[in-house]
Amino acid sequence: MDANHYRLTSVWQLPAEPLGVYRILRDVEHYPRWWRQVRSVHRLTDHSGELVIRSALPYRIRLTVTEREQDTVALTLAAELTGDLVGWSRWTVHPEVTGSRVVFQEEVRPAKALMRRLAPVARPLFLANHAAMMRSGERGLRRLLTR
Predict the structure, then answer these.
(1) Number of Cα atoms under 13 Å in the Cβ half of residue 134
(2) What single Pfam family name could you report for this chain, choosing any that match (predicted)?
(3) Of the residues 14, 97, 103, 139, which has the maximum number of CB atoms within 10 A of its CB?
(4) pLDDT (tens digit, 9 = 90+) per residue, 33-42?
């Protein structure tokens, strides 16, 4: 795999019933309320929107997210990503005895020229930044669910 290809997986354990978690994840427009790195969401169509994301590193990621799958039986959401990153992402919510296990998968390549040029040396920082953002998202969603 080259330095500009990212396959990312995060797993969240949440103390809430799966369908409720799924509904919150499906409501992308409200991510900024509970996920501080998602700075803004602007709806483009009924099935797409633009997200601006900023984590610890001093750059913003602007993405157009287009829905590809929304399955309320399998509790999966999948989207195509274009913009500063190109690829796809998927949420899957699994029932567990203690609530839900949420799996986030993403496969992307940076489209931003600076990110592509820096990848050979900055890849560990990009990965750490993504991991920190995902931990923050889990904490934010957990707070929302326990209110």
Answers:
(1) 18
(2) Polyketide_cyc2
(3) 14
(4) 999 999 999 9
| Residue type for position 116 | R
Distances (CA, A) of 102 to 7, 67, 105: 17, 18, 10
Separation of alpha carbons 42 and 51, rounded Å: 7
Q: Which ranges constitute the DSSP H helices of 27-112?
A: 31-34
Q: Could you tell me the end-to-end alpha-carbon distance of the chain, in angstroms, rounded to an integer?
A: 42
Give per-residue pLDDT as tens, 81-109.
999 999 999 999 999 999 999 999 999 99
Predicted local confidence at residue 116, as pLDDT: 93
Token digits of residue 74: 């399998």
Q: Residue 75 — left, alpha, or beta (φ > 0 → left; ψ -120 to 50 → alpha)? A: left
Q: How far apart are CA 65 and CA 83, in angstroms?
A: 9
The span from the CA of 106 to the CA of 123, in Å, is 16
CB 104 within 8 A of CB 91: yes
CATH 3.30.530.20 fits 6-145, yes or no: yes
Counting as low any pLDDT under 70, the low residues of the chain are 1
